[in-house]
């Protein structure tokens, strides 16, 4: 990634990368510590660190253990085996700037279903108690923290010595290459796609497994399951199930088709996602809230509605692309722009840009229901502490920045056609506001 390709000024970008590389790994541990050992109070954790400084952080940082290692290895190998061996439809990804088109096996829904059934069966038949995962969660996150940094280093080396496709290259800056990655589509052999494993199978499936773990832990701790934990878990599982129902569409998004495999994506999905994305449920384990039937149902309906709208946005665009624009959007023929672009190999290609339906409201309107859904699976914790809402704030910043990056990428790709598109769809995310 050359400096001319950076969305933000180079100095801001480099400072941001260095900050995230140094701050985010310990932040994951502090998130766990606050939810599990500091009563969910950010102030309590802050005061502890203020009084004890760096030694305080070292004292609360769990040491990697054999138990944690076994859990991670068993889970990782299980998901890798499912990714390789479960049958699935052959799906082609988008053509890359170098003209490469990756091919995937779409078996994510099967892998997700098999994982949840296996996990619940191990608990039901007394073979494995999921509370062990919660009880060793700090050690698991610590082990993942260090292990994933080594994994990203190996990806960096692989990008130099054994790239999997023509979609690779160095910026000439070690920090940039480690952070953003060297390869767009790294694979082991022909069939094992590394980003599908880190993003979809290890990361996203853990987002389904951990809320179930938290439910079982709360039940064993208190002898009952609070309605707040139940509502949080249902909305979360509906969202994750939606993701795997639509997984092939995800392979066309920025995460897979444009962001390379480095610290930002891979460490994020291996460590940050399992901890931060599941943090509202982690908090609720020791802070059960009684919502009452009316409030619980209201939150549930609102959350599921937001997940559905988010899904329908993606479905609408996917159907538009699949039919090459020969479909109906909200009962009408779609409004579109035919945009041409040139690949790095000099080939001229065309894309259709949808300008009606959800995609006529804003260029990234699908982020609105996604942010709202995250609020509704966090709000069952109510408002005694701020920490259950950290993910909502983080997601909002992430998606607004992603919308900006995506717009800049499309502007560079489509030129005058993107300008025309922005004239037809003037708002970036929120209709009438932004």
From TrEMBL:
It is a multi-pass membrane protein. The chain crosses the membrane at residues 12-33, 109-128, 140-157, 229-246, 261-279, 291-311, 375-400. Pfam families: ERG4_ERG24. PROSITE patterns: STEROL_REDUCT_2. Its main location: endoplasmic reticulum. Keywords: Cholesterol biosynthesis, Cholesterol metabolism, Endoplasmic reticulum, Lipid biosynthesis, Lipid metabolism, Membrane, NADP, Oxidoreductase, Steroid biosynthesis, Steroid metabolism, Sterol biosynthesis, Sterol metabolism, Transmembrane, Transmembrane helix. Its EC number is 1.3.1.21. It is found in: Endoplasmic reticulum membrane. Belongs to the ERG4/ERG24 family. PANTHER family: 7-DEHYDROCHOLESTEROL REDUCTASE, DELTA(14)-STEROL REDUCTASE. This is 7-dehydrocholesterol reductase. It comes from Datura stramonium.
